[in-house]
Specification:
Blueprint (H helix, E strand, L loop, with lengths): L2 H10 L4 E2 L2 H8 L12 E3 L4 H14 L3 E4 L18 E4 L6 E5 L4 E5 L4 H10 L2 E2 L12 H6 L7 H4 L6 E7 L5 E4 L12 H5 L8 E8 L1 E2 L3 E9 L2 H15 L3 E8 H10 L13 E9 L3 H17 L5 E4 L3 H21 L7 E2 L5 H15 L4 E7 L4 E7 L6 H21 L18 H4 L2 H14 L18
Parallel strand pairs: 2-4, 3-4
Antiparallel strand pairs: 1-2, 5-6, 6-10, 7-11, 8-9, 8-10, 12-14, 12-15, 13-14, 13-17, 16-18, 17-18
Helix pairs in contact: 1-3, 8-10, 9-11, 12-13
Bound molecules: flavin-adenine dinucleotide, D-malate (MLT) and zinc ion.
Length: 474
Amino acid sequence: MTGLLGRLAAIVGERNVLTDDASMTPYVNDWLGKYHGSAQAVVRPGSAAEVAAILAACRETGTPIVPQGGNTSMSGGATPDASGGAVVLSLTRMNRIREIDPIGNTITVDAGVVLAHVHTAAKEVGRHFPLSLGAEGSCTIGGNLATNAGGVAVLRYGTMRELTLGLEVALPDGRIWDGLTALRKDNTGYALRDLFIGSEGTLGVITGAVLKLFPEPKAKATALVAVPDAEAALSLLALVRGKCGDRLTAFEFMTGACIDLVLRHIADARIPFGAVPPALVLVELSDTDDDAALNARLEDALVAASEAELALDATIAQDIAQAKASWRLREGISEALVREGKAAKHDISVPVSRMAEFIAAADRAVAAVSPGVRHVVFGHLGDGNLHYNLLRAIDMSEADFAVLAPRLTRVVHDEAKAYRGSISAEHGIGQLRVGDMPRYKAPIELELMAALKGLFDPAELLNPGKLLPLSAKQ
Ligand code: FAD
Ligand code: MLT
Ligand code: ZN
């Protein structure tokens, strides 16, 4: 290897610089099968110092870098463009748990650690790391941080930003910022940490993090509740919160169309009701108490919901297998969607209390553009975050739907904006939504973001074309 590739090989060892198409394939295509890029190499560093050295070499040679963790992005954020000029910087070799402190309730990890491994490490010392999402077996802490990931426990514990105390970041100029603090209070100026969280690999490469731990919940109670519509689901949310308080950990909504899809595509999926209801809510409580007390509390709430005619039917999982089956229904939706075809994916948020209104308005707006389009609406209702996804009408070709999809996305995003909502609650902008930024972000926000980008990465080499449109310099 010569030139840049020779330098990269000198930093990480030749076996950690992949250049042949077969080895690079998993790194240059995305999970959804929507983005297909190309790269001159995939480089796999083993330490923060190696990451910094790679960034310095790329800066000297003007080489674009695409940071990548588990490559589970839902917005094409970790896929290089098709030019073949970029280097993909894969963090997956950096998978060390550096330290666990059960008294301070912190865990310090390399950025490439897989989320599920953090769960296991925390559990081993009787603690809990609460970020939880369908991709947790392959997504990494660095990717979770770079997208400020949400998932199914935000209602109780918050997003990745709220779960993080400190960061270590390799900067585009080759320096390392050591912000690996475990402090819960620190008022010494601008919160650099929060700037890197959610920056989608455009300001620096996160190499390590100090995360918050919580007491391990000893009891869990999980119910599937059939509801007539989203409005009833919102009233149910208020009722369960009132009766169960902070024990409410997850409140996940899915329409009957989502369940139909899961039952069709996921072999082991089952519903505990005779027929598919109009909509379902998965409710989970957790506590340090015992299972029986928690189940009784949930049952009490569900009886009240039924008396108030909010619940059509409900079932509480009697053991871990039944709880897992309930989650399989919910978490199988993304996989089932991919199997069904290319969806127009949305990740909007609006104020929680206005979610039912938003769904009705978006349904009308979408039907006005294309009446036959199938709505596959699910998500984190308790956080005001919906994956308002759309699939082609049964009699429409994939090609015709591909032409229609941007118009559908426009009406969905315009509706979210009308409710003072966001076009990305948790998946990030990536390349999927970058073209929408000027329409939905205020000019002053874009101006400040561009100024920050110019400060950290003046040569625009870090994840170009993601999150922010390329500047006129490019
Ligand atoms: P990647 O996909 O590799 O990268 C994502 C972004 O982060 C890219 O912009 C990349 O450049 C950047 N990046 C990665 N590592 C670093 C680093 N070390 N430093 C700087 N930048 C970096 N997301 C949710 O929020 N909630 C969900 O409920 C959820 N469910 C999902 C379910 C499934 C089945 C799948 C496939 C995805 C889901 N996602 C969800 C989306 C995705 O898994 C998360 O966004 C996850 O946090 C991405 O982690 P990753 O390691 O795979 O990141
Ligand atoms: C989820 O909540 O399951 C996701 O964030 C994924 C999706 O939109 O498919
Ligand atoms: Zn989600």
